[in-house]
Backbone:
């Protein structure tokens, strides 16, 4: 009898579960065909839903069935190396007596919460004793709050760029602005559909709990809205900074041009006069002992005249 | 009696059909007047609908009649040569016992599905045994999923452009950005009206089937929404990349200007001093043996002074 | 008795009418006070409506009264000389037994349709035999379809601009883009309010006909929506082309700058060295027979060094 | 008894009134505390409303009370000197038997209408005989129509700018565009809230009249919408013109750059060759009688070569 | 018995309260855990609300409970040093007999109002005698009106920037525009969610008062809308000014370029001719006494020719 069990274990390596009272929390990291087959055998889920757990092109949504709800969430995960925010999928089956979470293990707050409940009985009680809906609230709340440090990181980067732009080290700011902008765009696209899903979640999972969760979910919706507002603001700010950068770069080009012109105005007349007295033809003052002085005087007069002319025309 | 039959065949060259149980799938590639006349003779369709199958200025829509529905879809087809995404029309007549599809043969997944059903009986059963509505779902689902490789191609191109922009080969990126931008704009315009049509389709074709297709069509709508979201994001990203390109090009112009200025600052003073000692008038140190050294010293002092001045004014 | 009749004719020179069965189509080109007075005497129209027929600041609208409807449409007319699309007003009074159209004679399809019905009895029957509502549908349908060649003209111009931008003749493209952009903006402003009017027209004129016109008007609304979608797309494309033009112009300026720099880097060192040996002071190699060779060698070394330096700094 | 009356007059210098039948029109120009106190003593208005008549931060609105309505309108007034459109407030109290208008005297059509009614009895009858609602309609209609000459002025300015941009006098166009843009923005902000107020006005003042004013107010709403549409279009056009101006300015900079380059390509080689033969070392052809010819030939060859090279590289 | 009281005082240092009739106003500045614990002990508030008072990521909102309402507002506070507008939170618990306000002490009008009521009995009566709802109105009204001087400051800054842009001191305008833009963006983000909260507040707090507050709150909503409209307008204006600045900067660069070109056109030919006559080869007019005159003539002809050529080509 031992062997079949072993083979069974081989088939479902990533299915972990916790139980408190009536409620079981099944957590599946990095789901594959094996895990969805396991679910298909043990629960009566719609085959399309099981496909969706593995698919890469899902959108956050709520699918209602008689006995259970199938939820898909996307939460932002910040990749430090590529400096990009990408969406990580969390699929949830919620019934009265079970909550099944499927994800790729990138959502750290969820992984941590599950571990806490595994190790610490008090934590298990706190999260699981109020029914599956409350457990779901606890998970979502943690994941939403996890967005805040990412937001703060963005604010920090924006402020750094702002300081750089007006300093001398403005150069690198273009790349920084470009990366930040793309990151904010991606982040917004992830948050946008979650708002609708979390906003309409509470009435649908009310039946799985005796507790009144409206205030709790209302609070979470407020947080998501706050994140959305902040991202909107950041998007406008970063676009404004891009415009400012361009204006300042235009100024800098203008400065260089003016410098060139100043050099030209001062040095060219000298060359011109010197060339004239360099000609191999009879020239005035040529044999005077003060000839150099005369020539320098002429140069000074021409330079002075040009400077005066351009200043007056406000060209310099 | 043979001749009339031949002439009849000449009249309807592109009408192919499949039957399973009650359901007949009529597929017409590249419809012309001949084919619509054939339909007019065999079915009681509204003349405006038959016109619409041939017209070029349709918009995706659902026209409801007592016995049948007339649907027009536009799906994106990517033309590799022109690198442009264009819309290809699919006209559908759906009744309880028939599904008639008219298209130009550009929609490969549809052509392939029809062929599969022709050749493979199992496939025919799988697609046709659940009534005309389910068959329609199968066709639309395939066509929607066919958009994903086009999307992935766009993402790939965007990432390539992004890499190019910050490298030295930024030059060609303008054209690349322009083409991508136009392609994304066209793609969005094609997807936009399909969303509404597919979203409102299920309740209208419910009567042609015993199966509950709500979950299936809900899934397809999610996919279309996902495509729309992605295109929206790509549009914002490509606009951001265009701005970044311009900022970087501004930087590059500025670099060239600075280089010119550096050259001017170093070489012009030498020329000036050399011109002065080239004058045919009595000059200081003229007859000294170290005159060249004196002159070089004067040049070095002037260049040094200018460099110091411009550095201090942060103009260089 | 003759004189009064003549004077009466003098008063209403531009009122033409057609009759078939119960229905009379009154067509008034270039209406003035005379024509509206004629209408005021023969029909019981609201004075504000008659004013609106002559006013220049109308907006497309439907005014409902017990016996009749007063409609104002604006259709785009393309002026080849100014290359601008302007709105031309069509005012319509529709009752059960009459349809009165007032316009400036610029709407060619309407003028043509009226002439057809005057000359050709078959055409008269086809258009007038189904009641005033159907006649109205025929007129609107022709006028909407008349927008398509204007659209195609715009597409053609956009493609031409696109080709020009990437070719050497990019210069003139700015003016072309500016004119196209303004034209598209005007066109959109004309189409925008028509959509709402045509979309809500059918239920209001249903009472004047026995025919079911819902499908017909639905088709026309689809065409107007298609035109709107197309204009929206063209607007986005032309804005994208403007950005592309600017990016390419920036590139071109950069190219010219680089050329200037290359010239400076090659020619200035030669001048500098030549000036030095042009000084009237004792110089090295001055009396050697290979002095020119030595000097050229020094020039070549300096130019080479500068080219190497700038290439390495990726400034050239 | 005379004195108190005089003092009373001193207290209410700007209250003028007209009466026809039951209806009294009270017109107050430049209201101050004195005038609102007068109203407070004679009518039972809400103190907040009286405050609003004097306040500067109102928004167009309708406040309904049992006996009367309090309306705030803002109409655009064009200041020729500053070339800016600003909002001028009109506060209205309307009851069954009175209409009280408070404004700063800047709304010329209103001032003129009141004067007409004072002087001309026929005009008084025409405007006041149909109840307070009709009088209100007459006032608003005049004020709305008064926007049209301002609009026409803007169109004229836009067309002037358009002509300037493509001519040689493009310089001043920036300032012109900037002023026009700001003016259009301000104008839109004034019209925007009036639309809602006028649109919802008719049902609320129906009770003060026996006449059916729906058609009249519908007409006014159409005019306001027309103005809004026009301003929207102008905003888009002026933004497009700004882009066009920038593209053309880029072209012009490019032209100047090219000219500089052409000068450099022609003159620098001459200087270079001349400098070489100016060196104080043994030079070829130095003693030939045709030496100048030889040197000019070398110059011509170098210039020709450079021109050929740059033309071929399409840099010039 | 003294000691416990002291320790109690230590626990609640920042809780101040006012009473008039039934109503108590509790004001808590800079709330910490101590203060929320104090509230938890004395009132039956939901623990989530008490958390929200201390949290930094709230959004303006209304949470309704049976006995009380919990409100969160954010009002703009302008920091003179950083020149940035930031949001300052005001948390309010409102019941029939109490109003509890928690804030960081940055909202000066609120601090001032509380002090007035502490010191001046008349003021206390005026604000507190009408129930908690009216007191809340008084607080919000003051805080909303406090936005107006900030708005006026922004308008002043915009006008200053506008004047600067067209003057010679345009340089610093970029930074000014950038700071103003960011400030307006932040301000808008703060006002946006308050609109919804204040707009829906009145019906929810009606039960705590006998007075009809609808007109009062309607007035406050109008003020908030006015602020919103103004900020929207300022945002458009500042974006327009940024565009204008860029166009003008482009003009200025062009001017400098032209000046350089003028210098080049005048000075280079002189140098060229002088260099030619500086060659150590036989030259024409070399021994003539008027040789210098001849040479100057040649220079003048060349300069004149170039000026004529470029003027004709409209390049200068």
Residues:
């Amino acid at each position: 009898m031992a062997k079949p069990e072993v083979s069974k274990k081989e088939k479902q390596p990533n299915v972990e579960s916790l139980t408190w009272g009536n409620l079981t929390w099944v957590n599946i990291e990095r789901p594959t065909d094996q895990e969805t087959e396991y679910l298909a055998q043990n629960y009566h889920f719609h085959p399309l839903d099981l496909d969706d757990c593995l698919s890469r092109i899902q959108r956050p949504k709520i699918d209602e069935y008689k006995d259970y709800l199938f939820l898909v969430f996307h939460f932002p995960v910040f990749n430090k190396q590529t400096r990009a925010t990408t969406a990580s999928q969390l699929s949830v089956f919620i019934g009265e007596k079970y909550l099944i979470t499927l994800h790729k293990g990138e959502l750290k707050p969820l992984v941590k919460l599950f571990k806490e409940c595994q190790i610490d009985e008090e934590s298990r009680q706190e999260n699981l004793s109020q029914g599956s809906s409350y457990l779901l609230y606890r998970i979502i709340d943690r994941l939403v709050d996890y967005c805040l440090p990412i937001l703060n990181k963005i604010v920090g980067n924006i402020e750094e760029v702002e300081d750089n732009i007006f300093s001398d080290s403005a150069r690198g700011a273009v790349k920084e602005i470009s990366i930040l902008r793309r990151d904010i765009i991606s982040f917004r696209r992830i948050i946008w559909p979650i708002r609708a899903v979390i906003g309409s979640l509470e009435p649908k999972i009310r039946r799985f709990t005796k507790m009144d969760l409206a205030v709790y979910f209302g609070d979470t919706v407020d947080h998501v809205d706050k994140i959305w507002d902040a991202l909107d603001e950041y998007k406008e700010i970063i676009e404004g900074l891009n415009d400012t950068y361009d204006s300042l770069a235009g100024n800098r080009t203008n400065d260089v041009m003016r410098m060139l012109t100043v050099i030209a105005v001062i040095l060219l007349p000298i060359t011109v006069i010197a060339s004239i007295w360099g000609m191999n033809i009879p020239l005035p003052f040529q044999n005077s002992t003060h000839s150099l002085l005369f020539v320098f005087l002429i140069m000074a007069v021409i330079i002075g005249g040009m400077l005066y002319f351009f200043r007056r025309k406000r060209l310099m």
About this structure: The radius of gyration of chain A is 35 Å. Confidence is low (pLDDT under 50) at residues 1-9 of chain A. Chain A is about 65% helix and 15% strand. The CA atoms of residues 67 and 95 of chain A lie 6 Å apart.
